């Protein structure tokens, strides 16, 4: 839209004789700007499509070349593998032959040795048997000792446990006695306090009754001053 306006402004400037910055060439002068734009767009799209196609073709070609190369490499690998396998097989056959020869030689040596070792073996067997018996006996003794030790340990453990339980019971009993003693002390204290309060109350009551009696007595025997001559008892002429 901006381009259309720009073009319109340019064309107007041309007709009025005003200088324009966006002056177009003569081939674009009488064209419809929308058509020009569409054409350009189409051209651009075509170019892009062509480029894309070319790229795709190139990519395809490259892929094909790579695949061919991979196939060649694979073929080469197979050949090498085959060659290696063949070589390995040959080597294995040679080794087998050598092993067979060695085995035969070993067999001969073994037969020679067999006679020599037979007596030695029997002697060794007897010795081993004797040693085994001895070992077995020793092992049984050790097991017996271990068993006894375990039993002793268990007894000790049991004893220890019982002692701990006894100790715990004593401790608990002591604590209970202490609590009872505390409780007894509290009760005695409370009782003493109560007795003191009662005693105090009694004292208060006694003081109050004494004061009341005194007040009553004063009311009954109220002293009245009567003038007298100075001889005899007061009130007498």
TrEMBL record:
It comes from the Eukaryota. Residues 66-75, 93-106, 141-167 have a biased composition (Acidic residues). Residues 1-237 are annotated as: Disordered. Residues 211-220 have a biased composition (Basic and acidic residues). Residues 21-30, 37-63, 78-90, 109-138 have a biased composition (Basic residues). Transmembrane segments: none annotated. This is Uncharacterized protein. It comes from Spirodela intermedia.
